[in-house]
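[09:14] KT: can someone run the structure on this one? pasting the chain below
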Amino acid sequence: MMIEVSHIKNYDQPTVKDAVMVESDVDYVKACHALRQTHSGKKSLKVFVRQKYHYDWIRNYTEQTGISCTFTEKTPRLILEEKWNVTIPDWLEDDTVTEQSLLSLPVDTEQPARFEERMLVHFLGSTFYAEHLEATNLSDVVMALNRSEFGEYSNSYPILSRCLEERLKAWETRSKTPWVKKICKELLEDAEKVWKELTLRLLLTGYPAKLLEYVMPAERILLVKTVPLDALDDLPLNPVSREQASIQIEMFFKEVTPSIKSSTDFAEILKCTSGRLAIEFQMIVGILSQNPFDVSREDIAGVQSKFRSCAGVSTGRMAALERYVKPGQPTFSKTELSWEADQWKRWVVEEYIPYRHWQTQNGHYNAEVESAVQLFSDWYLKAYAAIHQDEEKSLVHLLSSWENRLKEDDLSLILLVDSIPVTYWGLLQEALTKAGFHRYELSYRFVPLPSHTENVKPALLSGSWQQGKGGYENILKKRAEKDWGEREAIYVPNLKALSNLVAPNENCVVLLNFFASDEVLHSDVELKDTTFEEELHRLFVRLADSAKKLFEGWQGSSEAFSVYVMTDHGASRILEEEKKSLDSKVVSKLFPDERYRFSAVSKKEADKIPQNLWDLGYRFTPPFWDEDTVYFIPRGHNTVKMQTAEKGYVHGGATPEEVIVPAAIFKPVKPAWKSLAARFLDLRIDRDTGKSSFYIQRVISIKIEVQNPNSEAVRILQVDILSPDTDIKACTTPHIGGNQYGVIQIDCYFNRSALKSDELTVQFTYEIAEEEYTTDLSLTAEFKSAVSGGFTLKDLQ
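[09:31] RB: done, structure tokens below
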């Protein structure tokens, strides 16, 4: 026999059969009767009592009558404690639990906690589980308290404000850091004010002190300056404070910009900026655009580093900063007249393209460079037939060179991106890399003449000069059936169609014919207050994301998926001084479209064209096409057709940027590049010990020959000496071509502590296919003093 009496509240409905429920005085009398009967029998009994006074009456009755009972109270506090797995504070009352319906909240009860922690975490996030407020979680706490929902939660659950008060007081008590104690009090009083002031502190702290004084009282400045800056790294900006700070920053730049005269001045101003505001970036660009000093690549790298994470500053805008750095003028002399194709490609990609981009961005005409471009055009027309019979050089044979790779894939995505000059290749490559694709191969090909879509694409897709009928889709399907293992081919005419494409299950080649990039290059971006870099970056990001989406929807192996990137031609931007033309009706008739620099006429009509027009270019008859057409190809950057409103890029000529284009292969898995090999050169070997010997406290030159066994080029980025303690005074960072050798020279000053070392370890960081790697080179060595008699070289200074 067992008798249980439980005190419960109205919301707690028992489900036990044959239990006695006491909700009135009459029920109390019945319960006492049931207790006597149960006590004299052998059955068990459960009694549930609603009112506390009935519960107390029954307890007194059983004590007086000697009835043995077990008494339990199920109050809201106790039920909450059990249900939430929490410790209930003394200040939480039963009525509060009931009135605010706390028991109905679906809180996470996995780990034990205090009641206030559970409430705050449920509504504001897990950061309130933290035992301490510190730099690492300050931003999370500030933003949680400034969420718009917080007010709604507090209105529905007034106890939430008490919980916050208890939590902040606990953090204040536990902390020994003065700024934490102050911020806890401030957050309790006005969390939005704290957010505003911390935002101002973050944005203006690098500027002269008066800027902060214009927007914040002095005593508040003293308070927020006690908060370490690293505690604000992840703090979103308060909109009101951002606007206030922007006004002050704009005023500051208007005052100081006229005084910026050197790279040193510029570095000081850049140091002031927070790197968090687009207005700062605009002010910095405004300084650079005035050309107050010779901008170096280091200056631009500093800006790019400072604003790398700035909202509103795109990769395209970052890339556009390169226009302010004047590259070295391309080297060219009479010896280059005998160059072969590979030598021209190296000159174009490494020297000419960077300089040409700077020229067009700054409107800088250079007669010597233009003369070199015209000589390139001369060479290309003469070497044309030989180049396009070479499968490794001609763009027409590009897909043939990829044939074996295409056959090995289960799914191939070919991105035929209309008009990618080498100038903007980096933007597309970066977009694909950020989307998770890794470059396996990069080459440069020569485009057929005229460098125009309608002439090039059919030959490129078919791999034959004679094929090109029936449209791009028909050409692709015939090529896939004939050369790529009879696999299915899917032609995609635009980016939307690629985004909506369901990844095929069977082996397949998907080709996207992407025209949008060509349209951007032909446009006048200045009318849109933007740049070619920004517009192309936006397109290329969407393109890369669509490629990623196709891959993610595919069920096959990552190793069996490849992205092939190719283009049909490059493009030129013409300077005013480079335009040479004839004012005649003949010219207007032959060149109806300003975007294209060539003209096509029949052989009969060609003989009627005045000779002075041919003197501006070449009379070109394609050697591989059976057609009755003669083309006029302009020499160098001649435009023949005078441009009016057109300010974008044009093509159809024979300049380096029109006829040398990139082609690349990417995969969603990292390539297994071969490790670089390296050896020390010209070592001084000690005859007695057989070890390499180095003097301390004098500048010593160390040479290292690096072997690149990969087909891809390698760029040495940085060289460090890990041991012994060394100051590096100078160091070369060579660019090493595929399957080539390069030499690193390091000018070192070994410090006196090197005497205790017996090893020289050099580490160099290098880049291959836009990804970074490191390798170490070690040598057993001994380090000796360079002086005798107890003096050092420093004594002679």
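[09:33] KT: thanks! The radius of gyration is 39 Å.
[09:34] RB: yep, looked fine to me
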